[in-house]
Amino acid sequence: MSAFTDSSTHLGLPYIQPAQAQKHVTHNEGVRRLDALVHLAVLSATVTSPPASIEGARYLVPAAATGLWSGQPEGTLAIYEGGAWVFLMPHAGWLTFVQDTGTQLVFDGATWGAAGGGDMQNLDQVGVQTTADAVNRLAVASDAVLLTHAGAGHQVKVNKAALTDTASLLFQTGFSGRAEMGTTGTDDFGIKVSADGTTFTTALRTEAATGRVHLPGNDVRFDGPYCIGDRRPNITVSATWNLANTSGGNLQRLVDGTMGQHVWSNGTDQSGRHIQFDLVEPQQISEFRLQFSANHTTTIKTVIRAANDPTGPWLTLSAPVSWADMMSGGVVTLPATPLQPFAHYRIHAVSGIETNPPWFNGIEMATQG
Question: Are 49 and 70 in contact (CB under 8 A)?
Answer without folding.
Answer: no
